[in-house]
Amino acid sequence: MELPDLRGREAILKVHAKKIKTADDVDFHTVARMAAGASGAELANIINEAALRAVRGGRTVVTEADLEESIEVVIAGYQKKNAVLSDQEKRVVAYHEIGHALVAAMQSHSAPVQKITIIPRTSGARGYTMQVETGDKYLMTREELENKIATYTGGRAAEEVAFGQITTGASNDIGQATKLARAMIARYGMSEDFDMVAMETVQNQYLGGDASLTCSPATQQEIDRKVVELVKAQHAKARKILTDNRDKLDELAGFLYEKETITGEEFMEILTGGEQR
Amino acid sequence: MELPDLRGREAILKVHAKKIKTADDVDFHTVARMAAGASGAELANIINEAALRAVRGGRTVVTEADLEESIEVVIAGYQKKNAVLSDQEKRVVAYHEIGHALVAAMQSHSAPVQKITIIPRTSGARGYTMQVETGDKYLMTREELENKIATYTGGRAAEEVAFGQITTGASNDIGQATKLARAMIARYGMSEDFDMVAMETVQNQYLGGDASLTCSPATQQEIDRKVVELVKAQHAKARKILTDNRDKLDELAGFLYEKETITGEEFMEILTGGEQR
Amino acid sequence: MELPDLRGREAILKVHAKKIKTADDVDFHTVARMAAGASGAELANIINEAALRAVRGGRTVVTEADLEESIEVVIAGYQKKNAVLSDQEKRVVAYHEIGHALVAAMQSHSAPVQKITIIPRTSGARGYTMQVETGDKYLMTREELENKIATYTGGRAAEEVAFGQITTGASNDIGQATKLARAMIARYGMSEDFDMVAMETVQNQYLGGDASLTCSPATQQEIDRKVVELVKAQHAKARKILTDNRDKLDELAGFLYEKETITGEEFMEILTGGEQR
Amino acid sequence: MELPDLRGREAILKVHAKKIKTADDVDFHTVARMAAGASGAELANIINEAALRAVRGGRTVVTEADLEESIEVVIAGYQKKNAVLSDQEKRVVAYHEIGHALVAAMQSHSAPVQKITIIPRTSGARGYTMQVETGDKYLMTREELENKIATYTGGRAAEEVAFGQITTGASNDIGQATKLARAMIARYGMSEDFDMVAMETVQNQYLGGDASLTCSPATQQEIDRKVVELVKAQHAKARKILTDNRDKLDELAGFLYEKETITGEEFMEILTGGEQR
Amino acid sequence: MELPDLRGREAILKVHAKKIKTADDVDFHTVARMAAGASGAELANIINEAALRAVRGGRTVVTEADLEESIEVVIAGYQKKNAVLSDQEKRVVAYHEIGHALVAAMQSHSAPVQKITIIPRTSGARGYTMQVETGDKYLMTREELENKIATYTGGRAAEEVAFGQITTGASNDIGQATKLARAMIARYGMSEDFDMVAMETVQNQYLGGDASLTCSPATQQEIDRKVVELVKAQHAKARKILTDNRDKLDELAGFLYEKETITGEEFMEILTGGEQR
Amino acid sequence: MELPDLRGREAILKVHAKKIKTADDVDFHTVARMAAGASGAELANIINEAALRAVRGGRTVVTEADLEESIEVVIAGYQKKNAVLSDQEKRVVAYHEIGHALVAAMQSHSAPVQKITIIPRTSGARGYTMQVETGDKYLMTREELENKIATYTGGRAAEEVAFGQITTGASNDIGQATKLARAMIARYGMSEDFDMVAMETVQNQYLGGDASLTCSPATQQEIDRKVVELVKAQHAKARKILTDNRDKLDELAGFLYEKETITGEEFMEILTGGEQR
Predict the structure, then answer these.
(1) What ipTM goes with this model?
(2) Residues carrying CATH 1.10.8.60, chain B
(3) Which end of chain D is more exposed for a tag (fewer CB within 10 A), N or C?
């Protein structure tokens, strides 16, 4: 089953929304954009969750805010309000998330940042940065993939720049960056040496499906080397971006630490020279 | 089960066509040629699909056009009219498809181009180039196989020549080119070094069936090297063909970008010096 | 279950033939010899098939010819009369089959050629060369096995000698030659270096059963090397035989191309200096 | 299922405690801290076990001590009072446990020691050292992970320092230290050379889930080397800590040997210069 | 289930023999010795088979000869009287079997030859040499194992000495010799280099059970090398024995070729200087 | 399920013994010591077996001797009185068993010898040496493990010293010595190079459970090398012990050959200078 694209998501949301009362200002196109990657079943869940939220809030109509929060609930679970991060952990998480956002923002072709939050979720996430594309993406260039890897490494890069030490907080980013880099080398023909030869086959065709090697151990080793080289270069780039923008990094992380959630607009305002708060 | 050959397909189509009314001009031989690779079940589907299409179109007889469109539906799914590629993506896809077609056309022994389209299909294809052989092919020479690999690489080669950058759009071509090149080296005895020794055995005997290695890791590495060498050479050839025919590439891609679908006749007309449109 | 030997096959054929009327001249010994490798069930099928063929031909007795044709049906399927090979493909297939036959005939210890045909069969075979041993073979010497490998390579060697190019038509020969060569090296103790040590074990004891390696990767590599060396030498020998007998190759291939089927007698007549036709 | 965090454990304990009568002084926050890593089902068990213990002790209310002992029962099984360690074994175990505790205490970022015991348990443990964090830990720095490895090696290091010989008593510690060190190298991106590339994937996401390698044998070897280097350095550090604090080691081990169980307070008192007993 | 030993076999045979009438001269001890390696079920079969044979022969009592022939039937199947080996094949088989027998006889510690036959059996055996131990063997020395390997290689060695060529007839011997040699190296600690370290583990504990490697590929390669060296040396010894006794080899093979079966007494008579026949 | 320890075994034996009448002198502590490694079910069997033995012997009470013999029956099966070892085999087995016992006795930390026997058992054992610890062992030092390996190699070492040749009789010892040595290197952190890093993980936690490798092939090779080195050194030590005590070896083996079973007291008496018998 292919996942629905942007228009498909909008259509599915509207179908399910017929069963509930929505506020006049609800913009399903925006909601569909934010719900990138959601399946049909998850889109139905988002509508239900939003309806429940409205009920809990004593409202008779579902608002845009209900829908947006319910996207986060479906993707990352409910807010885990009573999780108690130590102050130092909270500070590290704030820098980590700003690291992702700032590296993304400082590169071309990155999807705009929609929201950054350090309120833990029941999925186990200690925070996340939501980027939202303006439309569907069917093709990705090598440069866009490299930037995506750099963005994944941005969280740890921020820890390095700000604290000079690293934590287990980047585990998931490491997995994602590795998956993408391996695909570039072993499936998308994006290395000089392998040219247009696939060294892996994939069971599940979506980005990051399960890959199985079809090459010799010596070629596997070459893949390992190329993957490390690729990720290392993007990690270094991310670190440079953050070092070059240390002021913004500190300002944004401080703001996020305090507010716990910031919107894309707030993020851009500070980034584009908004004065010190 | 062996797939039906050309005569077989024509016979099967005619059997199923007895249940429907077809226009007088329907040429089942041509339909059978276009449906190369289809199984008996798929051929039955093609007739059903064409009948439904006629009904939807308010026609009482099934036309040649109904049959041709239904072949595409069975192979690649319905047109996905509301898929919104960005303008730049659409331009890349147009060059990509013309790349395949132009490399095929500029080599001897290639099957003629029947149709090129960049209307996305529900199968996930963002476009495709349909080549149709004039008869069944029982044997393929090394040169024909190499040309086929060059044709597979033609899509990315066009991206390189036109845009100087590469995308994930060639993933499937990479898989196909690799499969064919591995078969040449490891099963068809088409390398100097391995002579007439098979280094893989195949479960499913059709071209590109699942192969399992029966050789040592060191020999696997040699296979990897030879496959890369083989594909690299054809990729370079494809790039040269497109660079040498840059004018035609631009003209054809521009035409396809605008029209979204072009026929084999239109393709050949432009290719053989038809004046600028 | 061991397959029946020559006497066994003759006996089985006679048992089943009791249920049908056979012409006086039917020689079950010859039929049994031609049906080498057939199982008990296949021998029963051969009798049934021959009976049906006689009925279709309006005959009340089954003739030797009915039996011989039905052997081919059981082994390779029915003639696929409507398969349309291109003229060039037909020519390549003719040379390919004569290549096998001529290499076999020019070596000592080869079973005599009984029939060569290029009428495609429903099994997918584009043609074949039937060699029939005069008796059962219980032991094979190294030389006989090497000659058998040379015969397998004879098809492609003929393509090389006559057309200077190679095709996928030799895929099956490559698999068979490899299987035999691996068995010589890894199971029959026919290499200097491994002496009487088995490097593979076999599940199914018949010639070419499924083998699984029981040695180290480095030893596997040595096996690969020895197999290539062995096959390469026989392939070169086959090519030499055909080059040295180019006149006969051309004459026989031309004759087969025209007639589509030739008997062992016709083959030998041309081979032993029958004048130009 | 994610395990409950500190607040979650406290809440779950209180829910189950409603069914029993507890002494006024019971501090569920402390109990929850001690029960780190327990699942919901284990927390329910802890309450039941404590109730049974009170009954066996002829008490009508469950005390803090009942709850603390029942945590140990659920985690490590009942005390195995009749296990007869030889005197020398008992001495070795005492040094081993003090080794863990002393190395932990002498490093920064280590959770405080709560209790050390050398009374064997039915789980097979010959003794253990209970460390209790003051709050939940969501992130671990490289330094904290290294210290944890050093603490694991502290048991054997004490055997080396005190007896100049080593025993099988460290088997479990070796497994834990290896697991953590491999995760640092192959999943947490904590080696210079692999940067932010994952060389393993993990089925079960909790610390120390089952990992499967996705890299070449040569890269595996590099992982092995780095893991050994990492553990060796921490082991050496542990040995140095114990050598530098030989007096305390002897004093504490002697005390534990005699008393069989010592509390965190007793441990700290001796450690921080309490006079000789 | 352990197989019965000599006394056990004798007892089992006697139990089953109670149900039939046996000639007075039947020596169950001898029969039990000849049936070495037979299971309880096979011993029951031997008695039944002998009874049927007596009935077919019109005898009312079962003779020693009935029992001896029925052992062969149970082990190797019925005589396949109508198998037609070519004269050359029969000659090769005669030399092959005498090769085994002569190498065995010329070495110390070999079990005496009981019978040699070249009448094919339905098991597929083209002939065999029956050696019968005088008692059970519980231990085998390195020398005895080496001699056993030499005996296995004796068949092919005879082909080499007499005909200067080798055949597939030694396939089974190669498998047996390899199995024994691998066990000596990898399980019986009979190589200098591996000392008393097992490099394989065995599922089924009887001689030649299924072994699985538990060592590194590099060690596997060492095993391969040592196995080849070991077998090569014994093969050379076998060839030397036969070359040194060429007269006896020719005489015995000629006698066996003519008679098709010879007894241990006939074998020894010729071997120990019986005059030319 | 953990196996019962010494006290546990004694308790279990006493529970089951309540159902039978035992002689006054029965010492369950000694019986429990001899039954080291027995499960609860096996302990029940030992009591039943002893009761049956008393009945067969016409006794109304179960004696210590009944219990001791029944331990052997449960562990190694019934005596196989009619097994006929050749005189030479019997002599080899006698030296082999004394080899184990003498090497054990000449090293410190070895459990005392309780009984040595060369009466074959239905388990297939041709003899065995029973060593009985005075108490449970919870920890083993490197030295104790090395001594245990030396004891395993003592059987073959005795064959070498006494006969200058080796037999298959040490197969089982080789497997046990290898298992222990691999555990020392790969799981107990007892090699300099791997320090406290585990290179294997174990499914079943008891000594010698099934281990699976988690390291690279190169590291496996290092493990192989270290294991060989370790076993070789202990084997050499065993050989030295036996060579240095050749008189005692001959005397004890001669005595065992004659008596077939000797007690620990007899063994010690001869060992500690009892005069020649």
Answers:
(1) 0.87
(2) 6-76
(3) N
